Amino acid sequence: NAGVTQTPKFRVLKTGQSMTLLCAQDMNHEYMYWYRQDPGMGLRLIHYSVGEGTTAKGEVPDGYNVSRLKKQNFLLGLESAAPSQTSVYFCASSLAVGHLMNTEAFFGQGTRLTVV
Amino acid sequence: DAKTTQPNSMESNEEEPVHLPCNHSTISGTDYIHWYRQLPSQGPEYVIHGLTSNVNNRMASLAIAEDRKSSTLILHRATLRDAAVYYCILRDEGLSNSGYALNFGKGTSLLVTP
Fold first, then answer.
1. Does the pLDDT at position A100 exceed 80?
2. What is the C-alpha end-to-end distance of chain B, expressed in Å?
3. Is residue B86 very low, low, confident or very high in pLDDT (cuts 50, 70, 90)?
4. Confidence check: pLDDT of A2 > 90
5. Could you tell me which residues are beta bridge partners of residue B74?
6. What is the maximum alpha-carbon separation in chain B?
7. Chains A, B: CB contacts under 8 A, how many?
8. Which of B36, B42, B99 lies nearest to residue A48, judging by beta carbons?
9. Residues of A in contact with B36 (CB under 8 A)
């Protein structure tokens, strides 16, 4: 059982380049989230999705877009990367609140992105 | 969102119990108390959660004050592998705000010494 898998694990971008981060979960979770974590800080929510085909903005959405065309995948896009987007990005997933089972969130191992 | 307050850092000796405090004086009736931890260079992982009653699992225990304005995560015997940042998070499960996303603060950095 792989859990939450993030691709790639590391990436260096030049300012203005674009890229897509992929998050895949194999637990049939309804909810998925993208966070960023800057040095010495907690995680901040970028975008989230409560189901296939739905996305919404979190705390720091500017400069990012997301898509959830399939339930198991949640993509985070940077259209024109900026140095301020240098960070570690974490994806997470969980069952829907109200589910009979535990709704703990499962996190990926992170993607370390550097924009130069 | 209701806020939590945790000490920036704590230190413990290996094989000693550790009590990590969290204050949440503005907690609402539908806020669950969640604890996650983040080991170095890894994503956060779930530790435990509760609503009103004390909770135990294989990783830790959660003691919740009677008025729910504070809680304590208890690691019964700290190991070197328990060195991590511990986050106390309130999750409002009565309101679909941000898809029930976890709102992380800075947490408590736990140092475990041999």
1. no
2. 38
3. very high
4. no
5. B19, B61
6. 44
7. 61
8. B99
9. 105
Rounded Cα distance between A69 and A22, Å, is 12
d(C-alpha A63, C-alpha A44), whole Å: 14
pLDDT at B94 over 90: no
What are A44-67's pLDDT values in tens digits?
999 999 999 999 999 999 999 999
- E strands of A1-116, at which residues? 4-7, 10-13, 19-25, 31-37, 43-51, 54-57, 65-67, 73-78, 87-94, 106-107, 111-115
Contacts of B49 in chain A (CB under 8 A): 104
According to DSSP, the residues that pair with B46 across neighbouring strands are B36
What pLDDT is stored for residue A17 in this prediction? Answer: 98
Inter-chain touch B99–A108, beta carbons under 8 Å: no
| B45, B96, B106 ranked by CB distance to A42: nearest | B106
